[in-house]
Amino acid sequence: MATSQCCDNPPTLNAASGKGTVVDNFGGLKTYIAGSFDASKPAIILISDIFGFDAPNPRALADKVAESGFYVVIPDFLYGDPMPPNDLSQLPAWIQKHGPEKGYEDAKLVIQALKEKGVSAIGAAGFCWGAKVVVELAKSGDIKAGVLLHPAFVTVDDIKEVKVPISVLGAEIDVTTPPEVIKQFDEILSGRPEVQSFVKIFPGVKHGWTVRYEVTDKAAVEKANEAHKDMLDWFTKYVK
């Protein structure tokens, strides 16, 4: 489900942010790209939360992941229509318009575009709304590995069907997917040794902490960076 926490600390969107470039059509979507292309490189798809691909912090994360030898894309799965900030009343209608099911179908087209360029190793990470898209890709086996960061909409039944290495990074202060649910995910995955998994609940942080933080807040940056490192380590192990 989506809750008010999905709307907390909205970013100031900036279409010019990041060190990468924006292309108008990558698998049919406007896309932020970080890293130089090389078909031998593994690729990572970052799937945003409800505020979309113009948010500066996810783009900075894409740049950081690219520096570790990945080709990184952040497609605009929201078609230029992110959730309006500071207006919680619009959330139900916005979710109805932008269901993660459509994001999953679009993500398969992005994967197809990567494969047509010669990329064979592809991973995906999703934040909040985007985590549901990633878990669907992990269920269908369209990616080599996935990371779910403070997920929304992800269910126990989803976790039971995951086919690829999966990492779940949850927040201690989270009513969207509370620690009790994250622990259920861990129990299910622990009973499925054929699927490599890593589950972690970060103490003292709130839903959205990995991408919705002030860069001037040293403590918040450190907590986000810890999750970013866990994500990158997972992709280095299972996608590279």
Automatic annotation (TrEMBL):
Pfam families: DLH. Coiled coil: none annotated. Residues 30-238 form the Dienelactone hydrolase domain. Gene3D superfamilies: alpha/beta hydrolase (3.40.50.1820). GO terms for molecular function: hydrolase activity. Transmembrane segments: none annotated. It comes from the Eukaryota. InterPro entries: AB_hydrolase_fold, Dienelactn_hydro. PANTHER family: DIENELACTONE HYDROLASE (PTHR17630), PROTEIN AIM2 (PTHR17630:SF44). This is Dienelactone hydrolase domain-containing protein.
